[in-house]
Task: structure prediction
Amino acid sequence: MKYRLSRPVIGKDLFSIIKREVKKQKIPVYRMSRKNLKELAAVSEEIKKWGCPKYLVCKKLSNGLGRGVFLHPDAKPILKGQVIASYAGEISVVVQNEPDEGSYAFAPLEDFHLSKSEQILFDKKNSFHPRRLYALKLDALKQGNFTRFINHSEKPNIIADMLAIPKNPYGLEPAPIEIVYMAKKTIHPGEQLLISYEAGEKSYWKIFKVKPFPMTPKTFKLPSSLSQT
Result:
């Protein structure tokens, strides 16, 4: 698989800004547990090697719906609270409220200001303005991992949590904030992994003027005869 970025890569300068704003805005970011850290480290290694972990299947769907991600029919169930993977992609600082129709983008952090030196570094096209608001953009269009192929559903079995990755013995670089996909409920073999793109705001599909295809984890369930090749 082309997309093998296991986690977002945060530069030193951007790391400082994110850490500052998480603290300043009192964003409720929880530290990832030791159990989940071990799970994230394991799946990160799978992504680096294979792109899509061996217990998952990424395949084309019918009806022109693109790709979907499924739990392999021969795999063990994914239990509630288990890590699926980090949502990975290119991280950048953008001017808030600028037109953006990126279909693979998250904004984990919004409503922050940059100093003059920070604006020179991250916003070269605009002159300095002390009150200009910025947002952090995480975009998986050009690089990311299999999570970009996880489809939308109003009955999801996955949630996106914003978590802090602390110092750990598992080889994971610390991060002040990271979007991690977690199992919302038990995912059974053959079922499709699904998440709600709208996070309660009901605005995602309005931008694209699209009515989403009604999917549940069992709509395109994989047959038990599927071989893992």
